[in-house]
Write a structure and sequence with these properties.
Blueprint (H helix, E strand, L loop, with lengths): L4 E4 L6 E6 L3 E6 L5 E5 L4 E3 L4 E4 L2 E4 H12 L12 H11 L10 H16 L22 H6 L3
Antiparallel strand pairs: 1-2, 1-5, 2-3, 3-4, 6-7
Helix pairs in contact: 2-3
Amino acid sequence: MLKEILYVSGKPGLYKMVSQGKNLMVIESLSDGKRIPVFSSDKLVYLKDIAIFTENGEIPLSEVFEKIKLKENGAKCAVDAKPGNEKLVQYLEEILPDYDKNKVYPSDIRKLINWYNILVEAKLTDFATSETETGDKVEPASDKTEEISSEK
């Protein structure tokens, strides 16, 4: 499911690709359904390519979303992403106790929670269906911190 969802650096929210041309892609916001063009110079990242750093390697974002879904019983996150960093860090420690505290910043956790809430609102919560079942290989992003931290 996450192989179809995009994050565009510099633009809020998550998007789904509608059509693609030579140097242009038309994407649709999951929040409000508005369609906008993005160009080859824009930085696009599919959520399937993002992973969270842990002490033992990396965990794909789909697995982290699934853990949040289990904790929240399929509902939106109980933690608001806007208040202080302490609550965000505490929440991620409950979900993923072995996450790498040196590489995953509070801004990353804030995005994680916001993205999860957007996906729940859009009723796109089939996180357990891994991309490997559909024949695609899951490859975590090698520099997740740069990709997620670029928008604050």
